[in-house]
Design a protein that fits this description.
By secondary structure, this protein is α+β, with helices and mostly antiparallel strands. Helices cover 41% and strands 16% of the residues. The protein has 15 helices and ten strands. The strands form three sheets. A five-stranded mixed beta sheet has the order 1-2-3-4-5, with helices on both faces. The longest helix has 35 residues. It is extended, with a radius of gyration of 33 Å. The structure holds iron/sulfur cluster (SF4). The site of iron/sulfur cluster (SF4) has 14 residues, from helix 2 and helix 10.
Amino acid sequence: MEVSALSPSKLERLRLCEARVESQLHDEGYEEEKGEPALIGTLAHECAKLWYRKGVDGSWLYAELGDAFRAAMNECTNRQGRGSELPREASSIQAARTLAEQIATHYKRDGLNIIFAERRYKGNLSNAVPVHLIIDLGVDRGVDSHGNRTLEIIDYKTGFIACTTEDMYDKDQVLMNLLAVSLDPEYATKFTSFHFTYFWVKLGYETGPISFDGERLKDYEHWLGLEYKRIKEIKEPTESLNRFCASCGRRNDCKKYREWMTEALAEPKLLTLEEMSVLDDEVLMVQHQKLKGQMDKLEKLRDGLGDHLNSQLTVRQTDEITGKNYKAVRRSSQHDSYSVQTVLALCQAHHRDPASVLSVKKKGAEEMFASNPEAMQQLTLTMKKGRTAPSLQVVQIGVKRKTQPKKKAGTPEGTREAPVIQPAPGTSPLGQSETPAL
Ligand code: SF4
């Protein structure tokens, strides 16, 4: 596989699916779907870069964060070779601004000795492995009591999921960035130690700082050399299903993805009673169990899709996603209930058994006090108003949903009402002839 340079994200993507990376690198017309959360993160990073940079005269490039943010929007509309990377929704602009403000508040620039803001490393390591890295922020942390001068590199993470300080020791990004700055002649002589910190912007905290000694970084550099050789020797990149397949630009041509979709969405053939009657009991039981397993899987899949859509709504800070044919809407309904204390007090005052008002349901309380206007007024005045927990509904646009016929009181949930059988004239409801009255 032809890979021009290694980067932490490329290594990560190669572990997830080689075929996708191959298409990203070499298929003309391959288009990656860049989700709104990624665009929000890009804009926040761009703003932070401009905020922490100084001009040639040594003063900050932008005095106000708002100006840096709007300049960042301009930058995002015109990415060289990548088209516009500006978020598409108005709410995303607000979300990106909030992230940028959180970064600026956490790292107050006037109190920091900033060495660089968004430094790009593009070149070869000492073992000739080409790398391409971008480091968000470099801060000179000064000299400690042992005479060590530390350069701390900071990476802002704008997603929801954070990793622990322990997890950081396994991250390519941490090792690769530390390797790059420790090899950089500009810093290698000036600093004696290099630290790496993640700032989880949405969560408002840091993990790290961590560091590696020179020997460990040399090991990593050596491993990168071997890994780069292995990647270059890949003749047939393999397809591996992973949690990011939904945004993959080659999923329509991907054999593995198509097979998986067919299996996940296949509708089992419906059998008529006649067809079932010719099948062996054992076959029916096997089929029954198989369908049960499929139903469990499908329910899990549906719940997973619902959770994912829900998180998308949260990220976009909206209650509705509208597609071409479907829309996902998060709704909660208003509900009223009488105050428990009032109902109990009324029961006591009117010598009624509170147990008959089943869990102070609105209907039960109304039935008991309907003939007493004073009690009804007291109930209404103390009524508690609330909302049900939000639930997600996916509906087809332009198709009216069928309204379910209202259940009659007393019909248990999930059961059908028994049909009313009208007795034939001259017969009892049991179908027997009525005995003529003597
Ligand atoms: S759809 Fe998934 S498995 Fe197929 S190429 Fe894309 S990432 Fe790989």
